[in-house]
């Protein structure tokens, strides 16, 4: 018999705006719930009170581990990816499936530890930028054959090396993850150039030149996310919009993993995106 009860989800990292989007989608707007947020982990402050009220959630805890055994899944969405391992690993060890919102970690050391525990325990784990599943990125994946033999892919977006939330990782992982979806594979010949307020990452992947242009926001706004495919006989270029509901396709991928037990992104692909940003975020010399 199919279990028709909604999956019980906990969220840690409510300071991220994604937490609000997730609660709205799962607890407020979605009919015929497949999952609902039943607990939040964090301090008892005004923002917490707002989210509890928004989602009709009654359980708030300070200690994430106290929820092990009472929830079916965990979403880790702290702004600082350096906090993700401490929350993810105990739940994975206990067999609780997890979506770690971007980035999986702020370095390959923590990322490998998280992935190793998922593999050891056999617990489904996933991590990605919501932009990976944006409609515009879906369109680019379908359009790759239209440009002819793919020569180059460029993904542009904001990032700040001095961000308090893990430097380039906080926003740069969006571009690295989109690039991995457009050109999956092991990066080679990676080069990093800093030009004024931008960090340019360039590498080769399966015969294609991949460039990430990470631009520090100014005092007025940040550069939009953008991707370009260049082939032998055409170029396709598009902005990746952060419109209403842009997190929802990513939520659906997590729900699909809860239902099937199959992660939507290969673990090695998740690690590659982290490794690319780590290489650019590490000061030379």
UniProtKB/TrEMBL annotation:
Keywords: Oxidoreductase. Residues 8-125 form the Gfo/Idh/MocA-like oxidoreductase N-terminal domain. Pfam families: GFO_IDH_MocA. InterPro entries: Gfo/Idh/MocA-like_OxRdtase_N (IPR000683), Gfo/Idh/MocA_oxidoreduct (IPR051317), NAD(P)-bd_dom_sf (IPR036291). SUPFAM superfamilies: NAD(P)-binding Rossmann-fold domains. One of its GO terms (molecular function) is nucleotide binding. Belongs to the Gfo/Idh/MocA family. PANTHER family: CONSERVED EXPRESSED OXIDOREDUCTASE (EUROFUNG), CONSERVED EXPRESSED OXIDOREDUCTASE (EUROFUNG)-RELATED. This is Gfo/Idh/MocA-like oxidoreductase N-terminal domain-containing protein.
């Amino acid at each position: 018999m199919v279990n028709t009860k909604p999956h019980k989800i906990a969220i840690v990292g409510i300071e991220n705006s994604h937490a609000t989007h997730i609660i709205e989608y799962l607890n407020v707007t979605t009919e015929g719930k497949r999952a609902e947020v039943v607990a939040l982990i964090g301090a008892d402050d005004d923002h917490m009170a707002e989210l509890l009220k928004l989602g009709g959630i009654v359980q708030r805890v300070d200690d994430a581990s106290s929820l092990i055994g009472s929830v079916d899944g965990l979403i880790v969405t702290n702004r600082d990816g350096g906090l993700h391992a401490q929350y993810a690993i105990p739940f994975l060890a206990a067999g609780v499936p997890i979506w770690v919102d971007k980035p999986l970690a702020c370095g390959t050391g923590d990322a490998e530890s998280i992935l190793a525990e998922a593999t050891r325990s056999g617990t489904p784990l996933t991590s990605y930028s919501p932009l990976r599943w944006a409609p515009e990125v879906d369109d680019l994946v379908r359009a790759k054959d239209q440009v002819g033999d793919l020569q180059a892919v460029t993904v542009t977006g904001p990032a700040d090396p001095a961000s308090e939330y893990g430097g380039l990782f906080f926003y740069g992982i969006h571009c690295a993850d989109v690039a991995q979806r457009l050109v999956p594979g092991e990066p080679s010949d990676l080069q990093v150039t800093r030009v004024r307020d931008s960090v340019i990452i360039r590498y080769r992947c399966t015969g294609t030149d991949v460039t990430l242009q990470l631009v520090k926001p100014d005092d007025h706004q940040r550069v939009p996310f953008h991707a370009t495919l260049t082939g032998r006989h055409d170029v396709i270029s598009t902005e990746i919009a952060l419109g209403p509901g842009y997190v929802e396709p990513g939520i659906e991928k997590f729900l699909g993993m809860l239902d099937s037990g199959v992660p939507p992104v290969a673990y090695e692909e998740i690690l590659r995106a982290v490794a690319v940003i780590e290489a650019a975020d590490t000061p030379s010399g």
